[in-house]
Structures are given as C-alpha cells and as structure tokens.
Amino acid sequence: MIFGKKDSNTTTQKAMITFCRQYFKGSYHILIMLIVIIGLGIVGNNILPSVYGKLIDALTNAKLQNFNKYIAIYFSLLLLCSFLTAAEKTAGNLFVFTITNKIKGNIFNKITRMQQDRLEKFSVGELISRLESDAGNIVSFCVNFISSSILIIFNFIIAGYMIVAISRSMAYLALIYIPASVLIYAVFKKKLRKLTILRRKFGDKFYTYMNDSLSNILGIKAFQLENEMSVRYDSLLSKQLKLEQDIVNLGNKIQISNSFISTLFNLVIMCLAAGFIGKGHLSIGSFVSFNLYIGKLMDAVQNVQSINMDKQKTFVSLERILSFIENPVEDVNGQVTGIIKEKFRSLSVKGLKFNYGENEVLRNLDFDINSYGLYSIIGKNGSGKSTLIKLLIKLYSPLQGEIYLNEHPYKTLPTKELRECITYIQKETFILNDSIINNLRLADKDLDLPTAEEACKKVGLHEYIMTLPERYDTQLGEKGMVFSSGLRQKLNFARALIKNSHIILLDEITSDLDGESEKEIVGILKRLSKEKVLISISHKIEAIINSDEIFIMDHGRFAEHGRHDELMERSQIYKSLINKIQDK
C-alpha cells in the first residue's frame, strides 16, 4: 500500500479526484452530455410512479376519460425513458472507453520508459493486470459514481418529497430503513476490501503463470512437463474458484441482509397502509405510488451502499496503479550534445560499482577501449557480465563510478542520444510479428528498400529473403518464428547496420546457434568490427578466440585482459574457463 492506515481513505479519495481530473480533460463534453441524459432519465422515471398511481385510481373509480389520458402519458414516458436509457448506455460506453484508453496509453508508455531496475521488480503478469484490469475498474467506477450520485440525489429529493406528500406517517417509518442499511455496509466493509486485495494479487500470479506457460510451450514439450503444468494450472483454477466463491458468498450475505431489512419494512408499511385504506385516508392508487417511490428510495440507499462497496475495490486498483506510475522513468530528454555526429574515440569505465539490493555485483571495475574491434567479456555465470552491458546501454545507473563515451560522462548524455550511438543486441532476438522490411524500419522509420537490401547483403541475408514468395514483405510471425535462430540474428545485425551506431553490444547472441551458424555470425562480427566497436558476452569458443581483446570478469571486476594466445600462456583463470567451454 502507498498510503498510511490512519488517513488512507481520505488520501485515496483525494488521489482519486486528482487522477480523474488528469484524464477527464478533453472529454468533459461527453461527460456533460452523459450527466444531462442521466438527469432527464431520472426525472422521467420519478414521474412514472405518480402517473401510474393516478392510472390505478382512474381504473378503480371507473373514470375512463382520465384512464385514457393517464395511460397515454404513462406509455409516452416509458418510451422516452427507454430512449434515454439507450442514449445513456451509448454515452457511458464512449466515455469509459475514451478515458480507459488514455490511462492504458499512459501506463503502457510508463512501462516502456521506466527505469529498468524498477521495471524488473514487476512480473509480466503484474504489468498486464495493471494495464488491462485496474485502469478499466477505475474509469467504470467513476462513471458509475457520477450516474449513481445523480440518481441518488434525484431519488432522495423527488421520492422523499412524494412519500411525505402521500403519507407523512408511513414516510417516517420508511426513513428508518436508511441507517439500518448503512449499518450493513459498515459490517462487511473490511472483509470486502481484504478479498479484493487477495483477488488482485492472485490475478497478478495467474497472469504471470499464463504468460510463462504460453511463452514456453516448446520447453514444456521438450521436458515432458505437460501433466505437471496442467496440474499446476488446475490448482490455480481451484484457488481462483475458492476466492470467487468467497466473494460471491460475501455478496450473498450483503444481499440477504438488505433483502431481509427491505422486506421487513415493506411488510410493516403494507400493514399500516391497509389500516389507512380501510379508514378511507389513502386510495389504492396513492398506495401503489407510495410503494413505487419507497422502492426508488430504497434503491437510492442501496446505490449508496453499492458505491461504497465498489469504492473499496476501486481504491485497491488506484493504489496499484499509483504505486506503479510513481516509479521514475528514464531520462530520455535533455540537452542535445551532438555526440552522435562525433567519430568514436574512446569508451572508458572508471571505478564502477553496482549492487542488486545487498548483493554487490560490480566492484571498482575499470577498462578502456580506444579503437574499433571485437572485444569479448567472459566469466562465470553471475560474475556481472550482463549487468555491465546493461550499464553501458544505460538501462541501469551505477551506484558509484562513471562511464565515458568520447570523454563525455554518461550522466551528461541524454539517454535517447546515447542509445543512438549504441545498439544492444540481446540473446532473445527482438522481432515483431510484422514484415521483414518493417522490422528493419525499427532502426530507421524512413528506410527505403534499396538501403535495406544493402544492409542485408552485408550480413548474408539478402539472398535467402529473395527466395521467399513475398520477399521483404514476408511476415515473420510471433518472435520471428519464420526465421531460424541464425537468420534472426542476421536480421538483428542488418538492423544494427541501418542504425549505424558507433558501438554494438552483444549479449550471448551465439548461444543458441549450431557450429556452422556460429562461424558465419562470427565472420559477420569480424567484418563489422573493422568500422565499429563490438563488445560481446559469449560462452562459445569461436567468438572468443577471434576477438581482438578478451576481458576476464571475476567477482565483479576484470581480473585480466589480452588476446587469446597471450591469455592461454599466462592466465590460469582463462585456461580454466576455455577448458570448460570446450568440454561442453
């Protein structure tokens, strides 16, 4: 929770108002139209009981002329109210979708721009849940709150006035229902909030499991985990069912309590009305009107209760969204330095430290690169290799120390401009479910076909693309499944050439390749390294031995560096690592 317990409710209410104002801007015309439609509909619906009562009196007193007049008015009002209900639904849906999409757009933008170390604290399931569930809950509650508030106000004023006008004695008795209903809400409030929080947390867990499972179907098949995964899924469904049953049971308790009190008051009022009708103090039509207005008054009270119940659920969603969007975003803006136009001179790291929580990963790490070439970083798993790569692309910020590009400290370089100078190619290839040409255009939105073809020729991909029926318009499918691992990496290299960065960072890109594909990719790396700086993390021998310089990472710092032949002669750490790689 982001709010303290003592003033949680007040603070959350203020946060809700601020949150809604932020997103309602630009859509007030829809909101005003919705309020007008709701107001007209409520007025029409509150006139109906009075007209219906007069219609009953005209019928029981055999006044045919009055009966015809009132039945015409009654059905005209019914048609008008039906039209207004349809218009309210249309305007309400338009408003909900408009505002929900604004919130979702903001959350999605926040996800893509959040500092990486903060983003990694959330599972994919949590992100999807906040994006798809919480945003809609908040907007739906706001619209329901507005419409219900108007309904409650009109019903209290009109229905309250009419029941007092019809029978003051019965009206006073009916009004006792209000505090009785409020008491029901107070009894169940805490339990409802607790169940809502449990449901949200379970939703995060469920979404995460679904994402993990559906993203790794091949792994499930390869390790014959179909039964185990199905059992775990069934277990989650059982827990979901139990949680939903608890929520339904709580709702039933609230409904039964409300129905009991409502029925009790109706019985008392009917007994009282029977005496008044017997004495001639009340007509049957007036009693019918009174009873309909009492129903509206009770509906208003139950709407107040329903809003309070929904408020608890919505506040949970709001707190989850606020706790998420309050995380800092990357510094993508800033004063342009023009570094992208500079020729590469140097990349230096001085006294770099980085921790994951209490775990020290990098310890006073130093290195310098002053020329183009292929540089490999090797070391045991967990030694800090990938962390360094993420620091170089400014996904993380160092705890201490500084990184310099052409003598410019990283902290003075806007992230957007820095990433124009550096391309990061990760182990899991970044390919969208789109055409080849559009995937290449991720590096340059104005890319033309001849330039794309030239880049693909340099990495040995063009000839294969030309064998495809749709060539550069070929759809690659989810995660680029149309291409093999080697072809996907070639596409990544072609995109890097199009981006034309000074530096290319490679995080275990040959790990899934066979020997022949690995040699082909390493050949591409060597060609690119004549005009760029390539920094590669690798556990494959081909990329390592062909490097211009190799840095050995050990316990968060570079223990030694040099060429393959040099290190094989003088470094026991390097020989041990190479032997382990070759044994695989």
Automatic annotation (TrEMBL):
Pfam families: ABC_membrane (PF00664), ABC_tran (PF00005). It comes from the Bacteria. CDD domains: ABC_6TM_exporters (cd07346). InterPro entries: AAA+_ATPase, ABC1_TM_dom, ABC1_TM_sf, ABC_transporter-like_ATP-bd, P-loop_NTPase, Type_1_exporter. One of its GO terms (molecular function) is ABC-type oligopeptide transporter activity. It is found in: Cell membrane. This is ABC transporter. It comes from Ruminiclostridium papyrosolvens C7. The lineage of its organism: Bacteria, Bacillati, Bacillota, Clostridia, Eubacteriales.
